[in-house]
Predict the structure.
Amino acid sequence: MTAQAPTAPRTQTQEAPPERSAKTFRWGRFVRQLILFALACLFLMPVYALLVTALKDPAHVDVVKMWGLPDGLSLDSFKTVWPQLLPGFRNSLILTVPASLISSLLGAMNGFVLAKWRFPGADIVFPIILFGMFIPYQAIIIPMFQVLKDVGLWGGLDGLILVHIIYGLPITTLIFRSYFSGLPDELIDAAQVDGAGMLRTFFFIALPIAPPAFAVSMIWQFTSAWNDFLFGLILTRTEYWPITVALNNIAGGQTVPFNQAMASALLASIPTLLVYALLGRFFMRGLMAGALK
Amino acid sequence: MRSRTRRSIGKWLPGLILVAPSLIVLGIFVYGFIGWNARYSFTDWKGLTPSDTFVGLDNYRELFADETFRNDSRNLIIFTLVFMLGSLLLGLFMALLLDKGVWGEGFLRSVFLFPMAISFIATGIIWRWLLNSDSGESTTGINKLFDVVGLDFLHSEWHKSDSIFAVASIALPAGWALSGYVMALFLAGLRGIPEELREAARVDGAGELRVYWHVVRPLLLPVLMSAVVILAHISLKTFDLIYAIDPGGPRTETPALYMWLTSFRGGFFARGASIATMLFVAIALVVVPYIWYSMRQERR
């Protein structure tokens, strides 16, 4: 990890500061520990409720005992909702993979140019790109809806993929620009002295050392495309609903049994939770990149 | 002279060509569409086909006079304040506790942050159930939990109550989702402060509280600013969380929801476009100075 993105959080690097009095140290630490674990329990409370409800035998779901542990474990709720969720799940997978890949690749190109192959005005162009990250999608959704209808891309996944690629560009550009800015200029200069042009420098010098930035960018894009609701709701036909829209339609009704609603919510969250559990570091760096400096 | 210019153009032009596709798409899909949306907001477009009849500021005038829009804007202000203050305070609190080093820090950080990975729709579905306010036999969720631990006087109507607390209760799931993120931002900020600075202040005789106030606080200001901007822009545009918890009621509706209901349910696209434009202006007022400031800091 010689070239870490400058936006990466610096955690786990420093020891706790030494305290002078051993006695106050222990007490303070104990109280802090206690408060933090109590807070952790509060944060996990919805998860507990979700798990005990979704895992109960549907016949025994009883509001009176909703916070109690199930008598026996049953996967029936999951079995009931999975067939309904499956199309949405599939759509979201088909959607998120190319959306993350293409957006990241374009972001890598932009980031490389803006960090290491600058053109006059690059300093103005970058904030103009960046602003796209913060715009409320409500402010572009009507023209988007209109344009996709006019060009025949409304309703299917191809239009939605395009939308996610485009609105992913600001953050992927930011991630790669930060990453490439952290690389020494000598690396690029050396390649140029050897006669490499921009494309060669990009493909043979910059890209091979960029996997960490790719991981951050892909994970960020995967998560935001998977969790998107507004675009999916407005731009797709029923059979191409992404998982969030499908989830809301299955579990959002007032008459849906709680155990089924909980099971659906859990199933629909598994991919992003997996990413978080397995690649938390990269997920974090994506988050931190969003906070600029 | 001439050949030098040409050579330098030859140096940067390929770069510009490489980013050109992105610049063009973003130019159209971000700035073009925002302008296009604003243009729609000056027409009388309702129904399926866009209209080119300009009505000037009529849509805006009507909105300002519209009871629903005023109610929704008030809701949004309350939601934003409660959600932002809550997440900032809780996030800062957690970061300060974690910063000094505790047992199980990795685990705690993961727990505080994981809600960030879940979609607002899933969050909303879980919390709609936790915030259920049915009484008697069918009491569920947090109210039921209060019963279990003997705090039943704390029962609340949550988002179904008739007061401003209805929309404020949506800040609970929103804070659940984002205060861990605020914690991560502050923690990174705290860890970025060199220990020598604190040590120097201690050597000068400052107590721990004074160290925090005089050394740590000023250095955390940029982090606070980032957190405020991020939370504010999320708050203003939040649609899915509220939609999943309580779709379309005057108690919890905000302009982001009203915009969708007006345009895509009601077909009043011009009107929806004017709500969207106002949301855009509100967010731009927060974000543009922030980006400008960040870029200036970077150049230094």
